[in-house]
């Protein structure tokens, strides 16, 4: 059988994991006698141990001995580093470089932990030949923050640091000055894209909490598996919008195979998902899909060993799928009528579990998972002629794949399924837009009565959208009006109420002192002042009396206001650009995450099944 470089590398990784496993089980410490002498040189006992393990693994003794010597040297190096850290406080960081520079590079770096992230990045760039501005560092599944110290970010001795490269180093890519300039510009553009992604998602998340016209202003909403909006507390909604937004952006980079830019987005998504309540994460499959995407991204970067909790993430994904879809997918079938499309997630899960177990030395377990993935691949494979038939009917290739998988490959059933789903979604979207429009009208009605946007939104949320109930809530709780509101139209501050307004309230029967105090609190709004005084027997409630004095002072106009106004249009253009860039990557089809041609998966399943089959067939060469 022909042996390829990738097969040799995979076999070595498997052997290394298996030998590490044996050493741990037998409680053998290679850095101590009789395997290491007093001069830290290899002892004769290592050869005997290599013979024992090569017989057990049925593979070449020389290869086993060579790998065990590598393990021994690394253990000694690690022990030396531990002693050095204890005596000097200088920590060792294991640096995982991109594949193109990883070969024959010593990936260990010594540093003190009180330095900043920026200083560590500079040291890594200088040591390994990168341009500082064009690399990102990931430690403990988080991007290294440049302005904070390593200690503040939880960086410890022997931690693993992964380098993500936005461009190749000068010595590898310099062909001429123009090429170099082009690549630097490309790296800068990539960094700007990451920053625009962050700003665009923040804007869209803020709009999710605002009241916007659905016909004219783009915003992100949270919908369930049928496409209907989900009600939830504002703080959780914002975190979830950011989490899902970063996930979609990361998935867009994954599709373009830009894994170095995808990973920071996916890790940010993971961070925001963790701000949501655990009960929510158990009922939606987004979080499980994200775990798969993170592990997939690490694998595609060739850095799966840098993800210490890959097994934990895959197990978490499996648990989330079970909670969300139900045992044997019965909840999913009840909601959607089938589970054919979701099987693709389990194919990816089993494939990654197979790869991880293989690289951990668990050949038999890897074989079981890879066989499951292979079986699902055969079930999900689609005849290209069937896709062509549906394309001729006016459906997209994505709709065709999803429809055929939902209908077990039946073209007629798939066509009907796609048509019905189009009609259902069109109706749901129409209803959701109408609901959004009604909410906007109700808020405008309350604003017309003098209430702030913030107060109106909060009251309507408590009243489940009922305008009359919301008004009762506002009248009964006048302190709700005293909420910061960014809307200048409802924020008319004045230093003191006009005598005319005070006279109006006195004419209604209120005391002049109480009238003036109420007008100060409500910034001259006669209607709100009258409602509150009437509701509270002619005086302000105690919790609003403190603000009567505070509201009399109005901040003066800043001399820089006009200057700020002149740049407003520029800022607005930049925000529009950032939002549009996000929206371009939000897929039109709500089941885009379930669509795949399975081309990559097919290659990897075959490749790793081949590796597993070669484990026992490897012959002795000694």
Automatic annotation (TrEMBL):
Domain UBA, chain residue ranges per copy: 381-421, 431-477, 496-536
Coiled coil feature spans: 50-77, 415-443
InterPro entries associated with the record: NUB1, NUB1_ubiquitin-like_dom, SASH1/NUB1_homeodomain, UBA, UBA-like_sf, Ubiquitin-like_domsf
Write out the biased-composition intervals (Low complexity): 547-569
Residue span of region Disordered: 540-577
Signal peptide (UniProt feature, chain positions) = none
Q: Name one GO cellular component term.
A: nucleus
Cell location: Nucleus
Q: Does the keyword Coiled coil apply?
A: yes
Oxidoreductase as a keyword? no
Which is a Pfam family this sequence falls into? SASH1_Homeodomain
- Enumerate the Gene Ontology biological process terms: proteolysis involved in protein catabolic process
Q: Which SUPFAM superfamilies match?
A: UBA-like (SSF46934), Ubiquitin-like (SSF54236)
Q: Which UniProt keywords apply?
A: Coiled coil, Nucleus, Repeat
Protein name as catalogued: NEDD8 ultimate buster 1
The organism of origin for this protein: Equus caballus (Horse)
